[in-house]
């Protein structure tokens, strides 16, 4: 999974967000800083939507206080599964790396 | 959201435009959101850190966009599809061979002629001369603007200039000198350059053997040394390495070989010199400050610029003028780069043709643009269908661009081929005397120029329809409309009118050029040109020492010629119209300058029978006669122009005149002879008896009733055979010489007519394509009108009228432009006005006629429309 996609999904795990909020949260997170720009954000979002990992909130689900001009996105169940698998893979990778670093 | 700052609004607008580069699916779904978010980010950055913040954001954004475009494109493999696209393009183009052919030919013709002219212009004007540091070599020109305007120099002046100017190091003078080269019993003419060593050093000539002669060897007694050119060394000695010190017998004197030049050593204008001798090694006295029969160059010293050197030389010359006012008054110094001096005469001509090429290129571009717009329109349904089926904007645009690029490359290839042909043709038909034309060849740089030119054409006019297509409303096109009909029709008409105007400008230029050329062929010198034969006779100076001796031999030779069968009469002169060598000198009348000013007049020395042979009448007094000799009073005949100028209403006969220090009494007035150039006035001239002003060579003029070829053998051989120490070296008829004068103007007119013809062809294609496209558009309407009873010839004339109206509009602009630009044609007009009504009206009429034919072809087709078919919309 590309870092941009991972960052978006990671942000959305906190709950539904609109695009700007995703961007802002990504900027605030030191690990994801600088990964996303508006253009790539929406390109990756489009891919995630296509793959069914992310879905757009229907208007009924949009929070009452939300900006009505914005589109909100949430992680689907598929998205959660993929994130779980990806984070396990990454954890395993990280563990392997640390073992080897310690051993050398 | 609060109101946005101007930089943020601008950034947002630019960003929205850039987002269009991403694929269509993105634009539909997310572009608005993305732009919105970008605006917010930009606003935050701007508020926090001002323009610097925006700059950082843009840097990140541009990188991100570039990556995005690259990824999306490779995902959809637009680039990978180029190969199939080219195949597809070839297929599409094959379906419309006429249009593709027209575009390829247009680009080919425009690119080909532009490249050819670029090649010639570069080769003649811009390429440095082929010796080291040649751009730092200047010509030293003493010019008398009042009289000759030629670039000449006198050795003492050049010597002083060199000695007093720090910014130049090697300075020198040279002239051609012909020796008789004696080898055993045989003697042959040998052309050499006589020069000061500085002249050769300034040209960076190098020796293969030995050395150049030195400044010390200019001194009398030491100056019998000679340096051979590589060519002459090969020819004379077969490349003998032991040649140094050998003797060479020239004019009966022994010259010691001190050096042999390298093969690469090259001195412009002395290509015919076989060897170089010190300047003083001729019987002339080069010490006279006012004898300027030399060419001179100077090399700019290390550390100085050409401009500095020029300024210093001019200052030095001003100083010399006050020191030697007698010899330098009326003269001024010019010091152009040697390259510019050598090619200067070609500059106006090349500039003119650059203008013509520019016109032709624009005509070609306009044509291509129009053809491609028509093409894009006729393909709009196909493209709309493909867009509706999901083909991306970039994909479609790229497809069109690829098609244009294929056309452009084909056109470029055709153009390159044509360029080779045009350059060869140009060199082939070029008149002699265009400097350096023999060195011109199509080179790699020119090929590159062509490729860039054709690619630029592709980019410019391939993108135009692509942009239009990207704005096409798919639904509208599929409903049967065509995109942008009204606006493109207007654009196409505007482009066409500009194109026609340019073509008319070229045509008018050619028309004016032809008028000027005809004027030139109308030369009436004031005597019958037919039946005049001219030869050049020189005396052998090694045998004949005194002027009287030479004059006797020439008279003897004249008697021999007069007695030849077929020769009616004979005369001699130091120069005559069309044959160079006219000299000028300062005029004094009755011992003083006329009006107290410097006046320069032409002077000739002639033998009795000269005017009679030409058939120019003596108007007053008498002709030069046999009795005028060294022991009688010096006399002169003047021309009408001189009599009018210096004795207006008075009596010139009996007046004392002195020209260039030679005194004589005026005994006759002869009718003017018109110079060849129609714009040139008849200049005041003085004719002396040759016996009273003898010199070593003369023109011999003969009038004959028979063909010149039938007397040539006798005239060449008999005088030389019967009179010792006299040689006849040339033979031509006056008609041939006049013909030679016309070669160069004819070359220019032919080139100009060629350009105009190409432009006319392109313009006709342009009108044809616009009118036939209009006919195709209106097919249904025309069908209805014919069905309702409209007469076919009415339809025809209406359509022809629309084409002719465009042509007339083009004519008005074009003729106007020609009248203004005509001034740049001046050198070709020979006094014809650039607003000459005959030429301009003829051109306009011809152009409208061609336009009418170009529109008549599609118009005839329109009148023959199959009514039923048109109404069914087939």
Tell me briefly what this model is.
By secondary structure, chain A is mainly alpha-helical.
Which helices and strands, and how do they pair?
The complex is a heterodimer of chains A (104) and B (874).
Chain A: H1 3-12, E1 17-18, H2 19-28, H3 38-51, E2 54-56, E3 72-75, H4 77-103
Antiparallel strand pairs in A: 1-3, 2-3
Helix pairs in contact in A: 1-2
Chain B: H1 6-19, H2 24-75, H3 82-95, H4 97-126, E1 137-139, E2 141-143, H5 155-164, E3 168-183, E4 186-195, H6 197-202, E5 207-210, E6 225-228, H7 230-237, E7 247-250, E8 253-261, E9 275-278, E10 295-300, H8 306-323, H9 325-328, E11 332-334, H10 338-343, H11 347-378, H12 380-388, H13 393-429, H14 444-470, H15 474-478, H16 485-521, E12 532-539, H17 547-562, E13 567-573, E14 583-589, E15 600-607, H18 610-614, E16 618-621, E17 635-639, H19 640-646, E18 656-659, E19 662-670, E20 685-689, E21 697-704, H20 708-722, E22 726-733, H21 734-777, H22 779-787, H23 792-821, H24 826-829, H25 837-863, H26 867-872
Parallel strand pairs in B: 4-9, 6-8, 15-20, 17-19
Antiparallel strand pairs in B: 1-10, 2-11, 3-4, 3-7, 3-10, 5-8, 6-9, 7-8, 12-21, 12-22, 13-15, 13-21, 14-15, 14-18, 16-19, 17-20, 18-19
Helix pairs in contact in B: 1-2, 3-13, 4-11, 4-13, 4-14, 4-21, 5-8, 11-14, 11-16, 11-21, 13-14, 16-21, 16-23, 16-25, 17-20, 21-23, 21-25, 23-25
